[in-house]
């Protein structure tokens, strides 16, 4: 059944998050790995598509078929990455990430989700916004709205706040920086001004550390680690980890053994990085946030004393140097009641609730970040819509011809703030023909710019004399038409079917391995109660099942059949124990199989081991069946959210009854559902 819910998606450079309105409040959806954010990483390994954490985990071993930070290239014409021998556009790679988001959300909620609100950096151009919308459609979403990330974040912080206030949102993500000034009050979120830098983000802090490490290593060993893809990937991961650690520590050690080799043998990299050194290496990056922040305040007509609240968004804002700079720029201590990694997704979910009718009394008023106009004589840029104009909007202006008897004009559409058109971004161009021959300056050509709620531009030109009319809607980087989007959808769906089949095989294999482990335990613990013939028969069946498990080509059906056969054989142990007479109570040890959180096909299901003492069953009580409900991987139509709740409840019950206090263990899924978050940048 298709749901009316609209998914809110923060499609990030380094990590993505997604949320939905539940019971009047936005709720982050836990992904199939049991985590609240998903790495924006895609890879191909052995002809399998990997997305998220599985892709990130194998990046060091497979750097050539792994792509990260693709968002930095959204909307770039002719840009592609090669994965598994095929070229993919940024829109297609982003669609793979969004497809995983869609699958995980549907698995969590137990219903189909076809509608989405997707966020973009406030300073994204029209082309980048359209490219993001294309990616959502390729993934199978009906994209209801494209929302600016700072605007979405403000909604997450101010959902229940009816007081009038001026808010500055400072959003430093993995690959982009935005700052927006908003006025909030009475449920209205009005963006007054926005500014930013699409080429500044946490990745740049990582790169500064990478360059420092690589230069130091080169000076010592004469080897540039940046020229080796695998070594560079190890450096990248180490730099990111060091950045995160230095947010809470004064010093960290980077240790990368065997990172290179020469004629003298393998080389190790070991370095100590202090917070002071890190801040020295990246001081110029911090300063790059100052200009956009001051410009946004100036464009809004405010100074820092007018700001009532400051909101930090993006994992990179956890760095102490950033928090100190924000305090210096605004004189305000930032709000910290919402996780900066989740605020944008939560706000997108709220906007989804507004569009679906689940949320009342909220009005979002956003602006266009950059001026829009056309090229005129001499290559000048003639603005029709100024930056920070409230959207949606329409603006028209009359133009004329530059030469006599000119029957055609070329309309070239640009976006930016430079006075020379060619210095701005060319969004598109089209021709208006069939203009009646006339002296120069006589024809009246009306050009109309329209910007919709998503910030996407369409332009129309009409010759008022002849009625000749042409128009253009600015496309994304690849200029996808409906047919191309449909083809990409089908390709994405094909991967989804492959992933589902692989997931089913993995679950069947894990069930088989669990049953083998349980069988060996039962034989060992009830050695005296089981006759030799039964023991030999069960051991043969165990061997048969292990052979199927070891067969990489074994189907789900073969695994399930062999597992069922062993499960039936194991019932004989219970019968023999039950039928013993005069031997006194016989204790049968039944080990609870590992509780499992269901995951998608990319990796084997994460196993949460609940350590409990063996359940002891007296002889007169029938033994606990091997295929019991203790294994929480459900094959029914229950949702993953319901299964996770059951796992948490069972764990709490076990903790109350069977587990010593010192050995209590709460599955990660339970911690996450309670609001725990991973510290990422």
Structure description:
The chain has 681 residues and is of the alpha+beta class. The protein has four domains: 6-200 and 288-367, Nucleotidyltransferase, domain 5 (2-Layer Sandwich), CATH 3.30.420.40; 202-285, ATPase, substrate binding domain, subdomain 4 (Actin, Chain A, domain 4); 372-480, Substrate Binding Domain Of DNAk, Chain A, domain 1 (Sandwich); 484-673, no CATH class. Strand 25 (445-451) and strand 26 form a beta hairpin. The strands form nine sheets. Strands 1, 2, 3, 4, 10 and 11 form a six-stranded mixed sheet that branches. The model is unreliable at 581-681 (pLDDT under 50). It starts with 5 loop residues before the first strand and ends in an 8-residue tail after the last helix. The chain contains 16 helices and 31 strands.
Q: Secondary structure elements and their pairing?
A:
Layout: E1 6-10, E2 15-22, E3 25-28, E4 38-39, E5 41-45, E6 48-51, H1 53-57, E7 66-68, E8 81-83, E9 86-88, H2 90-109, E10 115-120, H3 126-138, E11 142-148, H4 149-158, E12 165-172, E13 177-185, E14 188-197, H5 202-221, H6 229-245, E15 251-262, E16 265-274, H7 275-281, H8 283-287, H9 290-300, E17 309-313, H10 320-330, H11 343-356, E18 363-367, E19 372-376, E20 380-385, E21 390-391, E22 393-399, E23 409-415, E24 425-432, E25 445-451, E26 457-463, E27 469-473, H12 482-525, H13 532-550, H14 556-579, E28 588-590, E29 595-596, E30 607-608, E31 615-617, H15 640-657, H16 668-673
Helix pairs in contact: 2-3, 4-11, 5-6, 12-13, 12-14, 13-14
């Amino acid at each position: 059944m298709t749901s009316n819910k609209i998914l809110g998606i923060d499609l990030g450079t380094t990590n993505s998050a997604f949320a939905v309105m539940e019971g009047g409040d936005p709720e982050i959806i836990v992904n199939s790995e049991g985590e609240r954010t998903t790495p924006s990483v895609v890879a191909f390994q052995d002809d399998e598509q990997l997305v998220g954490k599985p892709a990130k985990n194998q990046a060091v071993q497979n750097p050539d078929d792994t792509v990260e930070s693709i968002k930095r290239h959204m909307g770039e014409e002719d840009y592609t990455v090669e994965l598994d021998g095929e070229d993919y556009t940024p829109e297609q790679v982003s669609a793979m990430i969004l497809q995983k988001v869609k699958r995980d959300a549907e698995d969590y909620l137990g219903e189909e989700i076809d509608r989405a609100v997707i966020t973009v950096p406030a300073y994204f151009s029209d082309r980048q916004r359209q490219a993001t919308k294309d990616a959502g459609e390729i993934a199978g979403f009906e994209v209801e709205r494209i929302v600016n990330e700072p605007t979405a974040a403000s909604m997450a912080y101010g959902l229940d706040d009816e007081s009038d206030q001026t808010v500055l949102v400072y959003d430093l993500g993995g690959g982009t920086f935005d700052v927006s000034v908003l006025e909030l009050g009475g449920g209205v979120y009005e963006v007054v001004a926005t500014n930013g830098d699409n080429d500044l983000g946490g990745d740049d802090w990582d790169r500064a550390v990478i360059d420092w490490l690589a230069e130091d290593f080169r000076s010592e060993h004469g080897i540039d680690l940046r020229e080796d893809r695998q070594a560079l990937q190890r450096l990248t991961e180490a730099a990111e980890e060091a950045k995160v650690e230095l947010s809470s520590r004064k010093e960290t050690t980077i240790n990368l053994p065997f990172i290179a080799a020469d004629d003298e043998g393998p080389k190790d990299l070991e370095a100590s990085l202090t917070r002071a050194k890190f801040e020295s290496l990246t001081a110029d990056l911090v300063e790059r946030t100052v200009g956009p922040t001051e410009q946004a305040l100036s464009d809004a007509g405010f100074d820092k004393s007018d700001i009532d609240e400051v909101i930090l968004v993006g994992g990179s804002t956890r760095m102490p140097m950033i928090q100190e700079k924000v305090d210096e720029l605004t004189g305000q201590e930032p709000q910290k009641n919402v996780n900066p990694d989740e605020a944008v997704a939560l706000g997108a979910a709220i906007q989804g609730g507004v569009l679906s009718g689940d949320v009342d009394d909220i009005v979002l008023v956003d602006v266009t970040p950059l001026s829009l106009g056309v090229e005129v004589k001499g290559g000048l840029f003639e603005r029709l819509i100024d930056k920070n104009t409230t959207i949606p909007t329409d603006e028209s202006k009359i133009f004329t011809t530059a030469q006599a008897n000119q029957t055609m004009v070329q309309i070239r559409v640009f976006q930016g703030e430079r006075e020379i058109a060619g210095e701005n971004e060319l969004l598109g161009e089209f021709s208006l023909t069939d203009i009646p021959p006339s002296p120069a300056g006589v024809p009246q050509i009306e050009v109309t710019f329209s910007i919709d709620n998503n910030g996407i531009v369409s332009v129309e030109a009409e010759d008022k004399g002849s009625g000749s009319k042409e128009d253009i809607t600015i496309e994304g980087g690849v200029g996808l038409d409906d047919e191309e989007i449909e083809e990409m959808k089908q390709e994405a769906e094909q991967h989804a079917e492959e992933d589902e089949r692989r997931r089913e095989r993995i679950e069947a294999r894990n069930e088989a391995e669990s049953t083998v482990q349980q069988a060996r335990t039962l034989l060992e613990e009830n050695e005296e109660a089981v006759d030799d013939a039964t023991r030999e028969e069960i051991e043969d069946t165990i061997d048969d099942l292990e052979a199927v498990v070891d067969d990489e080509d074994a189907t789900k059906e073969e695994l399930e059949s062999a597992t069922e056969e062993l499960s039936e054989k194991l019932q004989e142990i219970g019968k023999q124990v039950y039928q013993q007479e005069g031997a006194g109570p016989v204790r049968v040890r039944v080990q609870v199989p590992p509780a499992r959180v269901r995951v998608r096909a990319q990796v084997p299901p994460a196993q949460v081991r609940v350590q409990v003492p063996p359940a002891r069953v007296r002889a007169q009580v029938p033994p606990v069946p091997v295929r019991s409900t203790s294994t929480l991987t459900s094959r029914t139509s229950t949702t993953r959210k319901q299964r996770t709740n059951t796992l948490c409840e069972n764990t709490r019950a076990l903790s109350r009854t069977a587990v010593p206090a010192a050995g209590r263990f709460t599955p990660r899924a339970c911690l996450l559902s309670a609001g725990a978050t991973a510290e990422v940048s």
